[in-house]
Amino acid sequence: MGSALLPFSDFMILALLGGLVAIDETAFLQIMISRPLVAGSLVGLAFGDLDSGLFFGAMAELIYLDALPAGAARFPDSGLATVVGTGLIVLAGRHGMSPSAGVWLVALLMAVLVGRVGERTITFVRRRNNGLCEEAVRRLESGQLRAVSVYHLMGLAFFFLRGMFLTFVLAMALFPVVGWAGEILPAGLDFPLIIGRNLILCASLALGLRLFVSAKTLVYFVVGAGITWAFIGLGI
Predict the structure, then answer these.
(1) How many CB atoms lie within 10 A of CB 150?
(2) For residues 55 and 25, what is the distance between their CA atoms, to the nearest angstrom?
(3) CA neighbours within 13 Å on the CB side: how many for 123?
(4) What is the model's pLDDT at position 82?
(5) Which of 116, 129, 173, 177 satisfies CB 3.0 to 4.6 Å to 155 for a cystine?
């Protein structure tokens, strides 16, 4: 199934959600809708598939739990990744594609790639907005007081349009990949609870490894894992 078969309005709705999530991340509101768990749920709710949105948001939240948009730090765009990834899943189900485990896996991998693309564009928009700030200061010094509000709104618009544009383009470009996955990967089973649980466990393990396994903490990680398995084996 190619993206050309999908209504344009579906991608536009997804793009608007992507723009809203993008400005919440650091620029405006910051009411946590950019967190993957919430962003995925919003996308699922918008397209009538809250269960899939919640599942995908939970997986993305575990993957990006340590990615905090604080200060000038560079971070993967977890909100954009979740909106696009969840959109691929819910649109696939909405238009007749069986949401098999293979489709979910491919959508999750695509979401991680989207997060990295978003990271690069965040840096670009921040530099562009820095130029707006410098121009606003020059206008303010010359007595143009309204320039501050105008350039502030322009900065917010850049963030919104970045999220909207990337969501629209990447969702349309990657949907055929999900369609291809649905055709060649096993699709005998719909996405049941047990597969969702296993994927969430894998995401949790990935997060734990990234957070705690390093040259300094590897010994403690192994010892802690050994004690945990010992308790499980003893039935404690």
Answers:
(1) 14
(2) 21
(3) 9
(4) 93
(5) 129
Give yes or no for a contact between 83 and 17, defined as CB atoms under 8 angstroms apart.
yes
Torsion, CA 199, CA 182, CA 112, CA 158, rounded to 10: -130
Q: pLDDT per residue over 183-209, tens digit each?
A: 666 555 455 455 555 666 666 666 666
Q: Please tell me the distance from the alpha carbon of residue 181 to that of residue 153, in angstroms, as a whole number.
A: 41
DSSP code at position 216:
T
Tens of pLDDT, residues 132-171: 676 666 766 676 667 667 766 777 788 888 889 999 999 9
pTM of the shown model: 0.72
Alpha helices in the chain (DSSP H): 8-25, 36-46, 50-63, 78-94, 101-141, 146-184, 193-212, 218-234
Do 186 and 58 meet the contact criterion of CB atoms below 8 Å apart? Answer: no
Retrieve residue 4's tokens.
């050309």
What one-letter code names the amino acid at 208? G
Structure tokens at 29: 């509101």
The HSE-up count of residue 70 (CA atoms within 13 Å, CB side) is 3
Q: Long-range contacts for 71-75 (Cβ within 8 Å, ≥24 apart)?
A: 72/126, 74/119, 74/122, 74/123, 75/119, 75/122
State which amino acid sits at residue 21.
V
What amino acid occupies position 146? R
